[in-house]
Specification:
Elements: E1 28-30, E2 33-35, H1 37-40, H2 52-75, H3 81-101, H4 108-128, H5 134-150
Antiparallel strand pairs: 1-2
Helix pairs in contact: 2-3, 2-4, 3-4, 3-5, 4-5
Length: 152
Amino acid sequence: MRCATHPEVETNLRCGRCGRLICPKCLVQTPVGARCSACAKLKRLPTYNVSPRQYLIASVAGLGVAILTGFAWAFIPISGYFSLLIALGVGYAIGEVISRSVNRKRGRGLQALGGACMVVSYAIYYLFFPWFNLYTIIGLALGILIAIIRLR
């Protein structure tokens, strides 16, 4: 007997639902036994299915927080090492607001959005303090990282 998908492979395995011959390559292990890919109906987790409407909501929420935190970051009279902490807080706030606005969804698109919002926040900060400081550049990188991790 030969696999229905891979005719060059001999097998005795059958799908537990439809009885179709399957080989170890195309077998999908499910809680109720071995299934063919058609019967297993593999889908992405709902946590990672983000609709265009949810991207729009996340964009508005993320940009709103980025603008607010960018202005707040610019008017907090702290520099040096403490600007790293502020950048980490801004990244966390952006990631958390984006996550909550789309009911804790996750995904690469939301991660990219979080990183872009962190850059917008830094750009607003840079409008008020147009010089490069090592701490703020490192803070920007860490803030982007924190925002991405929150949406992972």
